[in-house]
Amino acid sequence: MAGQHWTEKLDAYLDGELTAEEERQLREHLRGCATCAAEALERLQRKRAVQAAGLRFQADPAFRARIEKSVRTKQSPARAWSWAPALAVLVLAVLGVSLWTMHFRTHMRERHLLSELIDQHIATLASPNPVDVVSSDRHTVKPWFEGKLPFTFDLPELQGTSFTLIGGRASYVSQSPAAELLFRIRRHQLSVFIFQKSEANGECRNAEQTAQSFHMRSWSSDGLCYVAVGDVSADDLNALAKLLNAPAK
């Protein structure tokens, strides 16, 4: 019912027939109500379409002059420009809604991706055969993925670090081929997913997130997304990210 109250005032608002206080209240409502803002914009477009259709009729010049003179005497300059502030508010409202929608969709894609990767990591840990290729040698693990993925990646030398490579498996992220590498640090195991950036999985921004007691570290390099997931500290994930970003030797 509240929405209907404002909708009934839209035509008067577009025609400049509301009081100053009513116009201020409706303008504030349009800034926060996407439905009413869209309805107001649609009505404004209809009014403009009617005006455009009317311009197609070419009246006799003398008759047109009489009509225009009559309109000028009855319509104040302020009334003639009454649509300008209304249009400005509508454009701002629609723009604001569009920006919010884009931000919300990006946020939801990121949340969906995080949930998907955590589920895969948990499934890997629970599996009796967590990896397809079992080896701590990067020169064994990396070649195994050749022909199984539409991209290549480098693995770092882990000797002298706190990390041990357990192996890897072919996986999917947002229905795109991906590599899942399993690492061990102390008594913890963590997964690193590598996949190509696409609209489906978002921008793969450089970020740290936490969900379901798991930490996640994401970054991008050379057109690929890297996401490390595990029940380890953020410092551990950052240390592994630094190793994966180091130039291959």
Structural summary, described in words:
It is built from 9 helices and 7 strands, in the order H-H-H-H-H-H-H-E-H-E-E-E-E-E-E-H. By secondary structure, it is α+β, with helices and mostly antiparallel strands. A 7-stranded antiparallel β-sheet has the order 1-2-3-4-7-6-5, with helices on both faces. Helix 3 packs across helix 4, helix 3 runs parallel beside helix 7 and helix 4 crosses helix 7. The chain is elongated, with a radius of gyration of 30 Å.
Tell me, rounded to a whole number, the average pLDDT: 76
Strand fraction: 15-25%
What is the level-2 CATH architecture name of the largest domain? 2-Layer Sandwich
> Distance N terminus to C terminus?
68 Å
Domains, number: 2
What's the total count of β strands? 7
Outline the fold blueprint.
Elements: H1 2-7, H2 10-14, H3 20-32, H4 34-55, H5 61-74, H6 77-80, H7 83-126, E1 133-134, H8 138-144, E2 163-173, E3 176-185, E4 188-196, E5 207-211, E6 214-221, E7 224-230, H9 234-245
Antiparallel strand pairs: 1-2, 2-3, 3-4, 4-7, 5-6, 6-7
Helix pairs in contact: 3-4, 3-7, 4-7
Keywords for this structure?
elongated, 2 domains, seven-stranded antiparallel beta sheet, alpha+beta, Arc Repressor Mutant, subunit A, Phosphorylase Kinase, domain 1, single chain
